[in-house]
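Exam revision sheet. Question 4 asks you to relate a sequence to its structure. Input first:
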Amino acid sequence: MEGINPVELVGSLDAMGFQGGETKFKDISISSFQNYNKQEILEKVSNFTLSDDVKHFASMYKRTFDIRNNFLWKWLGVVYGEAGVTLSTVDNSYHKSITDTKILLTMAFSILDDVSEVYKDEELLKRITNIIRNPDVIIDDEDEECIFFKEIWNHFLMTLSKYPRYEEFKDIFWYDFEQMLNSVRYNVLINKNPEMINLQDMHNYDCHNMIIYLLNGIDLMVSPDFDKKDLPYIRNAFWHAQQMARIGNWLSTWKRELKERDFCSGVFAYAFEKDIIKIDDIEKLTDDEIIEKIEESGMNEHFLDVWKQNYGKLASLKDKMQSVDIDTYLNGLENVIKYHMASEGMK
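Answer key, structure tokens:
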């Protein structure tokens, strides 16, 4: 089967049968996709203005870690602020604040992610995790990475605690936070033991890497009209949204991660499980040879199908919730996968 560029897979979702905000799921085929305006998305990201607070921490990040560039923080600003994945229940007066808070939470998580997957420095990861457990811990004056992390973490905690429904939702939020930390530990295990990688674990554990529960959990803290009777259904929605966001991330980052020898991706899990490549091929084959094998394998079609299944299951929750506009949320998730594909190799 000839390989299909993932950018070509996520075209106009109107062509898929998701027209006019309608949430009735329809079966689609690969041939129904059309190209979307990648350049328009990239220009939107380029023109996004970061707040002074985010600029401050982005500058500190560059001096301390310098793995990610400002494109990622701007991309997050567009996704969190403009794509439509903010819950409809959010008080608009908090919209700018929570956009910044989400960017800084993601920056803090990116540090954890990169220390575990790029640096592969378990000792530094322990020191940073200790800051999360004990924000008042004393940091060695020469430990620049931890000094920076402590500053951004304490800023995040201070901001979060001021949101009007923080006390009401904090226990749930910090439980979900532990799932994110577990995803970091899981990825450490994968990179030490690539033989254990499999798709089921990826969907169960690695997908918490996308922190959807946390991002939308922040929304709930500033949602005066959110009805807690909707909580079991909205958390079900978060699960499917998290799977969908992870697929977009996997498809847009796996080639970069291959060059970094970071195999914490569902793309590699799929390739190993289907015997498209073997563990030994990582050293035997060139990166270009591995990429060609994976692209010709039907991998894109597989993950697109999983994305569609989650879309349909999320859409089926629409009538169960009274206080949340699921149509808007679904449209936002459509935007997110477009933004992922438009930014392939750039974040």
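Marking note for examiners. The chain has one domain: 6-11+36-342.
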